[in-house]
Amino acid sequence: MPLHAEELLQTAERVTGLSNWGGEEYFDREFRALLAAIVHSLENESALSPQGHRGAELRLRAALEARLQFIRDREHKPELKQIRITRPMFILGLPRSGSTFLHSLIAQDPAVHVPLTWEMMLPSPPPEARDRSSDARIARAEAICSAMGLKSREILELHPFGAQFPEECHIMMEIMLLGDNLPACWRMPTFNKQRAATDLMLAYRTHRMVLQNLHSMWPNKRVVLKNPGHLFYLQHLLETYPDALLVQTHRDPAKVIPSVAALLVAMRKASSNDAPPPDKIAMGNLRAFADGLTKVIQSRKDPSMNERFCDVHFRQLTADPIGTVERIYAHFSLGLSDTARHAMRQWLDDPANRTPKGQHTLAAYGLNDVALDQAFGEYMQHYGIVRERASS
Description:
Layout: H1 5-16, H2 28-44, H3 50-76, E1 89-93, H4 99-106, E2 112-113, H5 117-121, H6 136-147, H7 153-156, H8 181-185, H9 189-196, H10 201-215, E3 222-226, H11 234-240, E4 245-250, H12 253-271, H13 278-299, H14 303-306, E5 309-313, H15 314-319, H16 321-331, H17 338-349, H18 369-383
Parallel strand pairs: 1-3, 1-4, 2-3, 4-5
Helix pairs in contact: 1-3, 2-9, 3-6, 12-13, 13-18
């Protein structure tokens, strides 16, 4: 059945028994414009396969129901609006640079709160510790990931999608339909145009509100989040979280860009009968991240901005994971307990948590060393990044 924006809204109201979409406080006008655009794109531009259509429908229905339930919680429990998020840590930088590994490793610290995929996707009511492994929402989130093709062997070899894994925190923006994952999964020119015309501060305000809900059950823990996309919106991030601690991960772009392209192509193929050419995906990411990294270099020339950052290089992280975490904690004057170190060592002892990803060459994605040097030369020189090995 074709998707229709109004039908999706009505079904969400019927399923939840709720009808308050939030009004101006929750950016309802912008939300409805984005919903209309995403539905148009999915039906007319994404060339969805039957599985892709089903996955998109389940993801949208979950986001709409989650929005209604989230607004209900905040209206019934106004104390949620007062939850403080103190010195949250954000891991950002190039994707495929060890950020998922580092995020998952830090998550082993019992003093840390790292939201899981299902919690960010379906944040209401706020999850409690005793339900973290048994909540019914886990199965729903897992079913959505499966329906979207994100549990295929090809994709899992590139990234560990799953309801009970830590994940990029843009998922918390999905009740506003502004998560980065949506345009990554589907071709959506109309939606992307509407998204570009939307004030992205609305996404970050939504991010903070959802995090308040999730963190209400963990008030004494330190929040640690990850999203390479924050690289492009540092001003928005720091306006939302003025005391944020920033960990920037680094890696040879010649290893990063083909790997990113491989993941995005696989995600598109899982949903669409008309996946884009790999070289187009690779070039788009090359330009975007080269521009974003250059802007960060300029921002960090301000000493007060630079001191917010702790740099982590992929080679150092993989050679000495716990030593890297110790250095991050020391940089921000945080305490790392022996209990946390022990938990991290146990996690590292599981071979599944250190499985190397597949190798992807520049040539397979229409790129070469010259193109990479032109795009990322300043970045590599500024941070002292050297090539890992032959890339083409």
